[in-house]
Design brief:
Helix content is 3%, strand content 35%. By secondary structure, the chain is mainly beta. It has two domains: 32 residues, no CATH class; 225 residues, no CATH class. The relative contact order is 0.16.
Length: 353
């Protein structure tokens, strides 16, 4: 006879406590650890807590530099084009560079050309030869998106916007230089726990390819884009989180600026990150500082009185011409100057006797 499957056919697992603490199990308490389940901490200790943190197992840096000329850039908002690289958008145009004395850059996104590549040039990650713990990263045709801030000679912001340019392009692309911006670069990274993957085609292809997570400054997009021209719309995925696998951070700087061209230096920090649990000794909870209103420059007589000394009888016997502490004057009378009488304001008074 076959056994009937029901909800009671469940094998229950339980974990032991990390230890019986002094609070819920003092020395005179004879209860067993099984009776203290959900009373003592299941993991950790009172002074040693368990924390899962992203740990960097390997890290390397790389510098690239390419020249960008204004005539190579296209203003996306002013044309019906589907270009995804060497473009200006988000309100930035070529004319804004004429009044700029300095250019400040922030790397907000990098497309490493792993997912949905166009053409035969694409980046890839493969195991190193004869060493499965090493991953060989080869980068080609990466698209770097900058947040651009143009500043004039008076340190005032002239304009702000976005710019996307290509690094590590082919020999026929703009900005190619065999020394500072070659057609591709390769490096080895120590990846003992593996790498991260992403769908090759975001529209639904059933294939995962190795990828690199860029730690940038793009948050989640809410809602659906209502752009009229979808060709000029580029969707940027959220990248402001730390993920396992190979990650990259980037910094950029304009190292040379002429009339119509400027050189952008790009620093890439490659990191191999895995989430690992550690025990750490803590010194209590942190208390953030409380914001307080800025003290106003104007005098507050009521607040000064409440925070000041108590009133008391101030005139002693045989003291002639002494003002009582209970005597008050109009502030305008004090500002008119000294009238050399006992009731006048004592602030700023210098009577000639």
């Amino acid at each position: 006879m076959n056994k009937c499957c029901c909800n009671n056919d469940v094998k229950f697992f339980a974990k032991p406590n990390a230890g019986i603490c002094d609070i819920c199990h003092p020395a005179e308490n004879k209860e067993s650890p099984l009776q203290q389940v959900a009373m003592c901490p299941p993991i950790g200790e009172p002074k040693l807590l368990t924390m899962m943190a992203p740990v960097v197992f390997d890290e390397s840096g790389l510098n690239l530099c390419r020249t960008v000329c204004l005539d190579e850039l296209t203003e996306v908002g002013s044309c019906d084009c589907d270009k995804k690289t060497n473009i200006l958008f988000s309100g930035l145009c070529k004319k804004d560079f004429e009044d700029a004395d300095k250019i400040q850059l922030q790397v907000v996104d990098i497309d490493f050309n792993f997912v949905d590549p166009c053409g035969c040039r694409f980046s890839e990650i493969k195991p190193a030869k004869n060493n499965p713990n090493l991953s060989r990263v080869t980068l080609k045709d990466i698209e770097v998106t900058f947040a651009v801030t143009l500043i004039d000679s008076y340190c005032k912001v002239v304009s702000q916007g976005m710019m996307t340019v290509r690094y590590l392009g082919s020999e026929h692309d703009e900005g190619f230089d065999p020394c500072t911006n070659p057609s591709c670069v390769s490096l080895d990274l120590y990846t003992p726990y593996g790498i991260s993957y992403a769908p090759e085609n975001p529209m639904g292809c059933n294939k995962l390819v190795p990828t690199i997570n860029f730690i940038g400054f793009v948050a989640n997009q809410h809602g659906v884009c209502g752009c009229q021209d979808m060709k000029a719309f580029t969707r940027f995925n959220a990248n402001n989180t730390v993920q396992q696998g190979i990650s990259v951070q980037a910094l950029a700087k304009v190292v040379g600026y002429g009339d119509s061209c400027f050189a952008i230096g790009l620093t890439l920090y490659f990191k191999v990150i895995y989430f690992i649990q550690y025990k750490f000794q803590h010194a209590g909870l942190t208390v953030p500082p409380k914001l307080a209103p800025i003290q106003e420059s104007e005098e507050n007589s009521c607040l000064d009185f409440v925070c000041g000394d108590l009133l008391e009888p101030s005139i002693q016997p045989l003291e002639v011409g002494t003002d009582a502490k209970t005597l008050g004057e109009k502030e305008e009378h004090c500002k008119k100057g000294c009238s050399c009488n006992p009731c006048s304001c004592s602030k700023g008074c210098s009577c000639n006797k």
